[in-house]
Design brief:
The complex is a heterodimer. Chain A has helices at 22-42, 63-76, 86-89, 91-100, 131-150, 159-170, 186-202, 214-219, 233-236, 254-257. Chain A has ten helices and no strands. In chain A, helix 2 (63-76) crosses helix 4 (91-100) and helix 6 (159-170) crosses helix 7. By secondary structure, chain A is mainly α. Chain A has a domain at 9-111 and 126-219. Residues 1-50 and 259-284 of chain A have low confidence and may be disordered. Chain B has one domain: 3-Layer(bba) Sandwich (FAD/NAD(P)-binding domain), CATH 3.50.50.60. In chain B, helix 1 runs parallel beside helix 7, helix 5 crosses helix 12 and helix 6 crosses helix 11 (466-486). Chain B contains twelve helices and 22 strands. Chain B is globular, with a radius of gyration of 23 Å. Classes of the chains: A mainly alpha, B alpha/beta. Chains A and B meet through helix 6, helix 7, helix 8 and helix 9 of A and helix 2, strand 4, strand 9, helix 10 and strand 18 of B.
């Protein structure tokens, strides 16, 4: 890329920009809230948008990062005439929660040194950073790349330019460095990010994404089968369509579980009385 | 001060530890089980249909922040730590990986136990490539058969016999070794896609059968009096605990039986790190307790029932047994590390037809064994070994279950349309191949990296070899042929630009393996070897009772005993070896000495 030699400091991300005025802060906040409220209207059942709760506070992202990730996620899984996408599903909130939580903080990663760049393929993650640190370090570099290559931050590029910018990441063509190091390539970031978007669309809504289960409804996944006490046994060996693909149910909220599952739905070592009819003990 | 001495101390409370604890305590022995994780059981899984938490964030698996492994592909390369779980997923906690497994419960072929002798007999010594260090097990299938039977009746395995006492019976696997009796539970019916596979395989002259499963299709009471109910086909099986106890796991079978005797004491959060020994006899197991403080559990007999890597690490750290040196070709501990060879599958994306793919159970599958082991003539093929070919319906969960044909972009509107189109319309045939042993594939202690307690990590030296590449190339043609018979009108995926209104598509053909073994994508938690069994103390760590040649009161048990890995899931054989070891321990406890 021709831009490779461009000095980084010239546009090294939003942290070098002037501090925001109070007025700008207020309008930015209003913009975020507006985006969330507007997007809710596009969702299935969006007509009830009036009762939409306010968006949750951010736990990891800065507002700038949040806006960037929202736009990037929307490019992966767009909201269009066919159905809702990442913005409506709250994918950026999902990723925010993940980066603030144990996964993003590397609680299940071995991060002891020494560190080496692998001589061959197959060694996976070999840098001392956590996923949260990678997001924080990578996004400003991507911002520089978008400005130098396409003339604007990602958030205001045309959809075609946004798609091209993500393709540049996916192919590794975007020469984005972290502190001068190329050990974590743009292609690595793209696969990490794309996976996070898919998670945010298709994990249980409890994690902040997949709002109103729009992702599950899109692919036809019925959620937690045990919520219906309706084991698949009556369907799996037949060609009968399962009637609840469009009406998925999430994991039961903790509050609702109190008193419902204690005893009754708890499985035991013992075969239930109706075992001869081959029904489950779980729904008994 | 050391704990009160036990008759037997067992490291690890998974299938091996649970089975041995049950057998020994039933016979009156006092047993202490050291478990590095927490106690848990079926009640923990009432609300576990959470793909992100369990399948993606690895709730039930070893946390590599505390303890991992390093990998190099050859002796010259820098070994680097596996910093995130990926290629394999060992469990932790009561029941071990026996809690989160799928339940595929095979017996290895008679030929697998005599692989070296059988290969030379049929093809000559030159059929074994240079550097391949396969060896016979020191036990035959017929000798192990009663223990397989015991495991299957304890766990309630559902299946259909193909060979009863030497007589081929219809409906089962005609290539299997002789069974003394039928499976304890009949198999469930085929699902729609399994029925298509069965029909296609039959039309090609192959021999499809329902693959043996530990997911009960109907209620079952085992010989210990344990009753379990049937599977609900919820689709949350591998990587999850079973909330109805339909999947056989140690916490719903052998561990309660052992606890009921009052003679099993389980110490939780006990991280065993060494065996105190004088080179000939073990005195005790040293472990870090929940506070990280060293404790000592003395016993007459020490049993290592941890996962492959930790059994080997305990021996090496404790300087028990002779460490393997591949350059000098001396020693045995760490020798013949093997894995499982994937690749060679075929996939179809159907334009109209949909299946209830998200329903399933872990071991729900129809298989053929026509291309496994030495069930087909290898003359002129350029490789030895084979694998199991199957079509399973284990339950597609959405994060992991998306699949689109080649030519669909990686993101955007077209991708979004394609994931919806194919979520219920993708069908895969898998190949699970053998992993032969090689002189330079082995385990030792890493010189640089340590776990959270300061103990050295296990270093894995492993890569794919030409024999397996040739095997996978061959297998891919067979799976493609079956897929084409299933969907004869389908076009070759990628031959023309992708069109959303195009025909059914099939991807397949000669399979391949990556340039190097890759620790990132999940492949299989079927790591084997490092404490292998055999008839010769010069080339094996344990005898046919899994008793250490160098220390008769130490029994090392598990997939670490496999001299090389077969084209099957390992748990059935691990269970059989655990019953065999339990019998050996009882004999040893009574009269002492070497059992072989």
């Amino acid at each position: 890329m021709a831009e490779e030699s461009r000095p980084e400091a010239q546009s090294a991300g939003p942290f070098l920009e002037r501090p925001l005025s109070r007025r700008a802060l207020l309008s930015r906040a209003a913009g975020l809230a507006g985006a969330a409220a507007g997007s809710a209207l596009l969702g299935e059942g969006g007509a009830e948008g009036a009762a939409e709760p306010p968006p949750p506070p951010l736990r990891f992202f800065t507002p700038w990062e949040f806006a960037y990730v929202t736009a990037m996620a929307e490019t992966i899984w767009p909201t269009d005439d066919l159905g809702p996408g990442a913005r409506v599903a709250g994918v950026a909130y999902y990723i925010d929660g993940q980066l603030a939580g144990s996964w993003g903080q590397g609680h299940r990663m071995y991060l002891d040194g020494p560190f080496f760049q692998p001589a061959d393929s197959g060694h996976g993650w070999q840098i001392p950073m956590t996923p949260a640190e990678v997001y924080r370090a990578f996004l400003p570099g991507f911002d520089v790349y978008c400005k130098t290559t396409y003339g604007n931050p990602f958030t205001v590029l045309s959809p075609a330019q946004q798609a091209q910018a993500l393709t540049d990441l996916s192919t590794g063509a975007a020469p984005i460095q972290i502190g001068g190091s190329t050990a974590f390539t743009s292609a690595s970031f793209f696969s990490l990010f794309r996976q996070n978007v898919i998670e945010g669309m298709l994990s249980d809504p409890a994690y902040g994404g997949n709002r109103d289960m729009v992702g599950w409804k899109w692919v036809g996944f019925p959620g937690d089968p045990m919520r219906r006490g309706d084991p698949y046994e009556k369907y799996i060996f037949t060609t009968k369509p399962y009637p609840y693909e469009s009406k998925p149910l999430p994991l039961q909220p903790a509050a609702a579980k109190q008193g419902v599952t204690s005893g009754a739905a708890r499985p035991s070592f013992h075969v239930p009385a109706n075992a001869s009819t081959n029904t489950t003990s779980g729904g008994a | 001060m050391a704990n009160k001495k036990a008759d037997v101390v067992i490291v690890g409370m998974g299938w091996v530890g649970g089975i041995i604890a049950a057998e020994l305590t039933k016979a009156g022995l006092e047993v202490v089980g050291l478990e590095r994780g927490s106690a848990r059981g079926v009640g923990n899984w009432a609300d576990d249909h959470d793909e992100l938490r369990y399948a993606i964030r690895y709730e039930l698996f070893q946390n590599v922040a505390n303890e991992t492994w390093t990998l190099r592909h050859n002796l010259q390369e820098n070994a680097l730590p596996i910093r995130q779980l990926g290629s394999f997923l060992p469990g932790t906690g009561l029941g071990g990986a026996g809690v989160h497994w799928n339940g595929q419960t095979w017996r290895f072929h008679p030929r697998d136990f005599t692989i070296r002798t059988s290969t030379i007999e049929r093809y000559g010594a030159s059929a074994i490539p240079d550097g391949m260090s396969i060896q016979d097990w020191g036990i035959t299938y017929d000798e192990l058969e009663p223990y397989y039977d015991k495991f299957e009746y304890m766990a309630g395995i559902a299946g259909k016999a193909g060979n009863l006492q030497g007589k081929t019976v219809p409906g089962g696997n005609p290539f299997e070794g002789p069974r003394s009796r039928e499976y304890p539970v009949p198999p469930p019916p085929d699902t729609e896609m399994e029925a298509l596979f069965r029909e296609a395989a039959t039309s090609l002259g192959y021999h499809p059968f329902y693959a043996p499963t530990a997911n009960l299709p109907r209620p079952y009471k085992n010989p210990d009096g344990i009753e379990r109910g049937p599977c609900t086909y919820c689709g949350f099986c591998e990587r999850f605990g079973c909330e109805v106890g339909a999947k056989a796991d140690p916490t719903v079978t052998v561990i309660p039986v052992a606890l009921k005797t009052g003679r099993l004491k389980i110490i939780e959060h006990a991280n065993a790190y060494a065996i105190r020994n004088d080179g000939k006899t073990a005195q005790s197991v040293l472990y870090f307790d929940a506070a990280g403080v060293t404790q000592e559990q003395p016993a007459d007999v020490v049993v290592l029932g941890a996962y492959v890597f930790n059994n080997v690490r305990l021996l090496l750290v404790s300087k028990l047994g002779r460490p393997y040196d591949p350059v000098a070709n001396t020693g045995v501990v760490g020798k013949n590390y093997c894995y499982q060879t994937g690749g060679g599958g075929a996939t179809a994306w159907l334009s109209e037809k949909q299946f209830n793919r998200y329903m399933g159970s872990g071991a729900n599958q129809v298989a053929i064994d026509d291309f496994n082991a030495d069930n087909f003539d290898h003359t002129g093929l350029g490789f030895i070994g084979g694998g199991s070919i199957s079509l399973g319906q284990s339950g597609a969960r959405p994060i992991q279950g998306l699949s689109v044909p080649p030519g669909v972009p990686a993101f955007g509107r077209d991708w979004k349309v394609a994931i919806r189109k194919y979520f219920k319309s993708v069908v895969s045939i898998g190949f699970q191949g053998e992993s032969p042993a090689y002189r330079y594939h082995f385990l030792d202690l890493d010189p640089n990296y340590r776990d959270r307690y300061g103990q050295p990590l296990i270093r894995i030296t492993f890569d794919w070899e030409p024999n397996e590449r040739a095997m996978v190339a061959f297998a891919g043609q067979k799976t493609l042929q079956i897929m084409q018979a299933m969907f004869p009108k389908a076009a070759k995926a990628g031959a023309a630009p992708y069109s959303p209104t195009g025909p059914d598509l099939i991807q397949g053909g000669p399979g391949s393996l990556p340039a190097h073994y890759d620790t990132v994508p999940y492949q299989s938690t079927h790591n084997t070897g490092g404490a292998i069994m055999g008839a010769d103390p010069g080339t094996s760590v344990v005898n046919s009772y899994l008793q250490m040649w160098d220390a008769p009161n130490v029994f090392v048990v598990g997939a670490c005993n496999f001299p090389q890995n077969a084209g099957f899931n390992p748990t059935g054989t691990v269970g059989a070896l655990a019953y065999r070891a339990a019998e050996g321990i009882l004999k040893y406890h009574k009269s002492g000495g070497m059992l072989v």
